[in-house]
Amino acid sequence: MKKQNVITNSEKEIESLNWEIVKERERKCIKAFSLENDLLHLILERPLNDQSLGKDSSKCFTVDNCNNMYFTGHKSTAVVSSWCLILLALHLEWQSHILTKVAQVCGEKLPDADSVSHMKIVTMVIQETLHLYPPVAFVSKEALEEI
Q: What keyword terms does UniProt attach to this protein (predicted)?
């Protein structure tokens, strides 16, 4: 029980810190009348352009994406996930296609490995992301002399 309380408190603190960062960026943008063109800008812009997200959903969307951005590190799956989210934020029409397909296949349930196999468009977007932004750098080597 104590471990769960520590986890819950940590999650709340992380959410609070992320929300402070978001609010600070919003204040800067209002003062400067312009937005910096970076990943946080894209994350903040999405709820503004999507009227279907309520206030709570908008906050949850923003904080969840900030968590993804800050905690992904350099692991290949996390890198691909981040690039995929960035590309979908830039191309809202594809994001809409994916959301529609996920709703059709999953309904109210969370997607799982089995349901993803029924979402060809999701697979295509992930594969295109891998094509554009491979998670592992290719390092070419050439022998300087014969052994």
A: Heme, Iron, Membrane, Metal-binding, Monooxygenase, Oxidoreductase, Transmembrane, Transmembrane helix
